[in-house]
């Protein structure tokens, strides 16, 4: 393709280090689509004759059919998917194939193909996240009023509902969805027609190719168009943030599935056994989701470091942009699907959650709040009195609500039997009706709002 000024071919190692076909063959559909758009435009602009364009388009269809059947070949001589497509086109249609590369460079070609690929990747991720969100909403709805311990420092803090806890993840993932949507909107400009770096002297129509490929318009600067990969980094940043959220949820599943917690039983489909310990049911999928998040972060770091020192415009370093994006995408897609499956099929052990919520003096804050409200104490004093009540309950080995009223009144004369109304975990969660709070009424409201927004799209 570029041998005109060379007397000798490249060495075998040169070939190997230079070739990107082993990974960029994954963009063959995008490569064909971009070539079709480019050829069509060349015809419409009178740059290439109509019969040649017709031959090129027919030839590209034939190449696509070959790719569909056998995939692109791992042929290092042809370097990359762009050269392989052109070479195959030449095999099919002969001379007119040589006209396809008019007013185009592999630099704007790869920038275009890769944007198209990342755009498709975002659409796939968004579809996966939609299923995950629906699973979270379903399970949250089932457990809107089931009480579990809420933690800070992983110490029992205040009771919450399982529905509320799951909806926290729904919120996080909703922001991830919006990050992907933002990235998609921002990247949706077409670099095709930037040519090698400076644009072209041919009378091309960049609006036409951009529109044909579903972009909002062409990129405005040819140097930028061929040499930035911020669109890929936007994708990786959104992917990393999303993976991080999935990792926290996965970590909770790992903890909750452990015997000391016993909050969740993962279904058989999402558990693995041990080759030596017959009793084991290991949460491997959750552990791998947690693990994959580290690799996804590594992919983002890799591309950032690749890009950070490159002068404008294209440098071959940029060929290394694709493996980390492909890897991160595969890991993320798997993680989302695995998390969705685990959530859909998990059995939440609500009786056990309730027992634990009931055992940790988790309604102590409710007692302090009651003292403020009903006995007029300043909160600091109420906190101190409640601390003494907890110490007494601990000494007697009973829950707060099981303390005799005489014991309570002995600690503070303002405490009356009415206090028992707030000491149960159900009363505690029901009282937390502030917007965004854990009261079952609020949780159901949040679920309904989220469902309505999702149906609207
Ligand atoms: N395979 C190359 C890549 O992925 C395509 C662009 C090659 N451009 C060049 N001037 N050598 O970046």
From TrEMBL:
- Catalysed reactions, as listed in the record: 2-(N(omega)-L-arginino)succinate = fumarate + L-arginine
Q: Which residues form the Argininosuccinate lyase C-terminal domain?
A: 361-430
- Entry's EC annotation: 4.3.2.1
According to its UniProt record, this protein's enzyme class is lyase
Alphabetical UniProt keywords: Amino-acid biosynthesis, Arginine biosynthesis, Cytoplasm, Lyase
Keyword Cytoplasm listed? The answer is yes
Provide the species name: Sphingomonas baiyangensis
Supply the name of the protein. Answer: Argininosuccinate lyase
The listed locations are: Cytoplasm
Provide the family line.
Answer: Belongs to the lyase 1 family. Argininosuccinate lyase subfamily.
GO biological process entries? L-arginine biosynthetic process via ornithine
Q: Per its UniProt record, what CDD domains does this chain match?
A: Argininosuccinate_lyase (cd01359)
Q: Which Pfam families match?
A: ASL_C2, Lyase_1
Show the SUPFAM superfamilies listed in the entry. L-aspartase-like (SSF48557)
List the GO molecular function terms: argininosuccinate lyase activity
* Name of the gene this protein is made from: argH
| InterPro entries on file | Arg_succ_lyase_C, Argininosuccinate_lyase, Fumarase/histidase_N, Fumarate_lyase_CS, Fumarate_lyase_fam, Fumarate_lyase_N, L-Aspartase-like
Main localization of the protein described in the UniProt heading: cytoplasm
Pathway, per record: Amino-acid biosynthesis; L-arginine biosynthesis; L-arginine from L-ornithine and carbamoyl phosphate: step 3/3
NCBIfam families recorded for this chain?
argH (TIGR00838)
GO cellular-component term (any): cytosol
- The keyword Iron-sulfur is assigned to this record: no
What domain of life does the UniProt record list for this protein's source? Bacteria
- In what residue span(s) does the Fumarate lyase N-terminal domain sit? 4-298
């Amino acid at each position: 393709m570029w041998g005109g000024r060379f007397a000798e071919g490249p060495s075998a190692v040169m070939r190997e280090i230079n070739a990107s076909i082993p990974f960029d063959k994954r963009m063959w559909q995008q490569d064909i689509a971009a070539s079709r758009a480019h050829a069509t435009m060349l015809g419409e602009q009178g740059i290439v004759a109509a019969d040649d364009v017709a031959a090129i388009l027919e030839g590209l269809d034939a190449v696509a059919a070959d790719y569909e059947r056998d995939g692109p070949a791992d042929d290092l001589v042809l370097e990359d998917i762009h050269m392989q497509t052109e070479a195959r086109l030449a095999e099919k249609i002969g001379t007119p194939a040589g006209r396809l590369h008019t007013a185009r460079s592999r630099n704007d070609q790869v920038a275009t193909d890769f944007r198209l690929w990342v755009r498709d990747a975002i659409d796939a991720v968004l579809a996966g996240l939609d299923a995950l969100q629906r699973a979270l909403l379903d399970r949250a709805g089932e457990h809107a009023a089931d009480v579990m311990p809420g933690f800070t420092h992983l110490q029992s803090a205040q009771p919450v509902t399982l529905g509320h806890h799951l909806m926290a993840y729904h919120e996080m993932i909703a922001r991830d969805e919006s990050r992907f949507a933002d990235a998609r909107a921002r990247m949706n400009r077409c670099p095709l027609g930037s040519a090698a770096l400076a644009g072209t002297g041919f009378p091309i129509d960049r609006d036409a190719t951009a529109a044909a490929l579903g972009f909002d318009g062409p990129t405005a600067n040819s140097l930028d168009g061929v040499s930035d990969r911020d669109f890929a980094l936007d994708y990786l940043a959104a992917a990393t943030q999303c993976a991080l959220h999935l990792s926290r949820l996965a970590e909770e599943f790992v903890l909750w599935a452990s015997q000391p917690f016993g909050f969740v039983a993962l279904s058989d489909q999402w558990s693995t056994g041990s080759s030596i310990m017959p009793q084991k049911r290991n949460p491997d999928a959750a552990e791998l989701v947690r693990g994959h998040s580290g690799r996804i972060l590594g992919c983002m770091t890799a591309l950032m470091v690749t890009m950070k020192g490159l002068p404008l415009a294209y440098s071959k370093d940029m060929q290394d942009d694709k493996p980390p994006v492909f890897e991160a995408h595969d890991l993320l897609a798997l993680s989302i699907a695995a998390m969705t499956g685990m959530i859909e099929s998990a059995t939440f052990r609500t009786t056990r959650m309730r027992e634990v919520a009931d055992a940790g003096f988790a309604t102590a804050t409710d007692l302090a709040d009651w003292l403020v409200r009903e006995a007029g104490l300043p909160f600091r004093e109420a906190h101190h009195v409640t601390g003494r009540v907890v110490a007494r309950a601990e000494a007697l080995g009973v829950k707060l609500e099981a303390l005799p009223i005489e014991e309570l009144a002995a600690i503070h004369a303002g405490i009356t039997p009415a206090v028992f109304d707030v000491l149960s975990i159900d009363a505690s969660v029901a009282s937390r009706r502030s917007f965004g709070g854990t009261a079952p009424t609020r949780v159901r409201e949040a679920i309904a709002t989220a469902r309505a927004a999702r149906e609207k799209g």
